[in-house]
Design brief:
The chain is mainly alpha-helical and 238 residues long. The chain has helices at 2-15, 17-36, 47-77, 80-85, 91-119, 128-152, 155-172, 184-190, 194-206, 214-234. The protein has one domain (2-234). Helices cover 77% and strands 0% of the residues.
Amino acid sequence: MIAAQAALETRMLLRNGEQLLLTVIIPTLLLVLFSSIDIVDTGAGKSVDFLAPGILALAVMSTAFTGQAIATGFERRYGVLKRLASSPLPRWGLMTAKTASVLVTEVLQVLLLTVIALALGWSPHGGVLPVLLLLLAGTAAFSGLGLLMAGTLKAEATLAAANLVFLLLLVGGGVIVPLDRFPSGAQHVLGLLPVSALSDGLRDVLQHGAGMPWGDLGILAVWAAAGLAAAGRFFRWE
């Protein structure tokens, strides 16, 4: 039942034009545009080496947080979650299916963005395990926050808030603009955001060839634990 629901959730996500724009087209356009045109000073080296890890973090956020929050919020509004909750599929099974759908979508995103970045001259370094752990921790953190928002706010408020947060974190989360371009006081605060931790961790590994970025992984783990615990406590099914 979980596998069937996960397959359904994935098909619905990929058929949704607005979600596709958010999860695939926008990250792809940002990667191509900022890698091809010197708009933002990303420091020494090729722009794509700095941008690719940040765009991967943005893709995770767009799917696990923004897209999931909006879709789940409207499912809750129209009573879809209430009907699914009364089906033989248990509630934990439904959430597992949604998580599996997010992971499948992210795999497709990462593959597409990696191919495009390599075509643009990206030269990734580092190991696979740190990257996978960072992506999983980032997915857990953003999923918890997205479900918390979808399960507590009205659908219209979720739509507005999720898109606003997406735009704010795109600008101030170290995705495209390096955090060292911000005032020193703001850098410490922005560095604690989940998208900043994910971007910096991926960048340390893929651009600089570092080992496991425990600090960034720890920040993501804290966000994941807090977000998922709050979502489990306050999520309303109707």
